[in-house]
Amino acid sequence: RKPGQWQTAEATIRGDLVTVMLNGVKIHDGLKVDRSTGGHLDENVDQPGPIMLQGDHGAIAFRKIRIKPLQ
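User: That's the sequence. What structure does it adopt?
Assistant: C-alpha cells below.
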C-alpha cells in the first residue's frame, strides 16, 4: 500500500522463529531470530517480557493492536 495508508501486519512468534504477514502476503516464514535487537531491555530473550514497537524511518502510528497467547 502507498505511504499514508494503513498497513495490516500479523506476526507469529514461537521461540526464536518469526512468521510475518504484511497486507495478507507472507514476508517472513519461520525466520530464525537468534539474538536480541539493539533496543533490548535485557539479555533474557527466551523469557516473557514487554512488547516494543518501533519505526525508524519517520513518523509512524499504530492502531488496533491485539496480542493473543499461542495455543
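The chain is about 0% helix and 30% strand.
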